Amino acid sequence: MLKKSTILIAIACLFFAFKSNETTMPRLSISANHRYFMAGDKPFFWLGDTGWLLFSKLKREEAEQYFDTRAKQGFNVIQVMVVHSIKETNAYGDSALSNKNIAQPKTTPGNTFGKGNEYDYWDHIDWIITKAAEKGLYVALVPVWGSVVKESHIGADKAKIYAEFLAKRYRDRPNVIWMNGGDIAGSDSLKTWNAIGNTLHDQDGTHLVTYHPRGRTQSSKWFQNENWLDFNCFQSGHRTYAQDTSKKDLKYGEDNWRYVQTDYNLSPAKPTLDAEPSYEKIPYGLHDIKLPRWTAADVRRYGYWSVFAGACGYTYGDNDVMQMHKPTDKGSAYGSKGYWYNSVNDPGAKQMVYLKKLMLSHPYFDRVPDQSIIAGNNGEKYNRLIATRGKNYAFVYTCTGREININADNLEGSKLKASWFNPRNGQTTAIGTFAKAKTIKFKPPGKVSNGNDWVLIVDAI
């Protein structure tokens, strides 16, 4: 039989190993130019996934399987709802709240593993956040979904109590990001959203805070000048150009680069990103499941358009994964037919890492959007060309494979080395070296068609 001292030493070793996994992840911060993120002193390109119902739908072994897959695919942020329903329970049947009251989180004393309460709602979240850190993943926590606040009439007082609970519980976790709101206009329950934002900012102060708005809107519309908002998010949404008919929202259609352009010109400067574009395999406009569905080509287009326009990252989504659709579900939303554990390997998900690798392959913090690189017409809708540049390089994206004419006068160097980058497989193919000229023409491989997307890489010599 083991001696008591030996057992205590073993437990201590496990404890410190457990803690070290958490502390190895640097906290995220804002770069000196207020455009991008940093992890420690290194560039951090946000590559997110919407795992919205992770906490409520997945058991621990399933959560670890999901994290393993996303980490291997290059994702580094998981967006997840903490409380999605006022009656929220997790996969083990434990409730998040007492008496359906947001100001009364239902907790059990301590975190006594093996004593029957390790599957308590909040202990389960603790475990998942720790497991995410072990996999090198940050979690962007939405405290309470917007519809819950609106329908349950949650006011600023209760919201403040709840936000204090969250801040105290998770302020020591290095891999947490706060994503206030949740698919709702900031003008709905404005005092409540400010109460949550200010409380997280004041009581935590070590984690970045943002706001997730409703479709076709951006957080800067309501919170640009709030001290608690560290960076902006927008939801370009799931509608097509033809479906963009709302009288309240901006008429940007599928042009998600326009949201970036708007935020980029605001003062004070803050990073911005598309936190919810159209999901892979979700119907156009969400609700009519007979309509066509968004494809890998579409999620790539949204990614490159927004990032080249100046975004600090990009969030991908999949219809089956965002709702963690399982065989045991009684139904599904938005015509989901696949199961999350298969759909995590959908084509678009595997292709997202190429965007991150491309952006980190060249000097990062001095990168700016610059349409002056493009000679002639920038194009409209799917014919739009998007350009970005840094010191001694430039990228130009086409989602159709149309001809790209560049204005070389605005680029560094006496000669230029050009290459094609393929967003579908991440491969780079050399084109050649060129003397600088007023206009240089490049024709991408293949026929002009939606989904034949390419990035022209131009490096100064």
From TrEMBL:
<dbReference type="InterPro" id="IPR025277">
    <property type="entry name" value="Apiosidase-like_cat_dom"/>
</dbReference>
<dbReference type="InterPro" id="IPR017853">
    <property type="entry name" value="GH"/>
</dbReference>
<dbReference type="Pfam" id="PF13204">
    <property type="entry name" value="Apiosidase"/>
</dbReference>
<protein>
    <submittedName>
        <fullName>DUF4038 domain-containing protein</fullName>
    </submittedName>
</protein>
<keyword id="KW-0732">Signal</keyword>
<feature type="signal peptide">
    <location>
        <begin position="1"/>
        <end position="19"/>
    </location>
</feature>
<dbReference type="Pfam" id="PF12904">
    <property type="entry name" value="Collagen_bind_2"/>
</dbReference>
<feature type="domain" description="Apiosidase-like catalytic">
    <location>
        <begin position="31"/>
        <end position="365"/>
    </location>
</feature>
<feature type="domain" description="Putative collagen-binding">
    <location>
        <begin position="368"/>
        <end position="459"/>
    </location>
</feature>
<dbReference type="InterPro" id="IPR024749">
    <property type="entry name" value="Collagen-bd_put"/>
</dbReference>
